[in-house]
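Input sequence (96 aa), recorded before submission:
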Amino acid sequence: MIVHIVMFKFQEANIEANIIEAQERLNALIEFVPSLDSIEIGVDFDRSDRAMDLVLTTKFQTKEDLEEYAIHPFHLKVVEFIKSVTEYSKVVDYQK
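Predicted structure, token format:
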């Protein structure tokens, strides 16, 4: 199993609305991306200096499934939106 985790730091402008929009778009991926086995989204409540605003955890059967997800048109549309409202992101991919 492949686990793909992405943490996002959002821009301050419209942060609450953008986090909600990102959550909705990310959650919809499970319906449109066949290679995606599961998805979990968490929103930070701490707001400390070290905290990221949102974390995405997705799971795939194989590395190839993750690669298919990365280039899937629906995923790319979500990425486009998220890039427009975030400052940066960090990623970890590992095999379980």
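Checked by second reader. The helical segments are 15-32, 63-71, 73-85.
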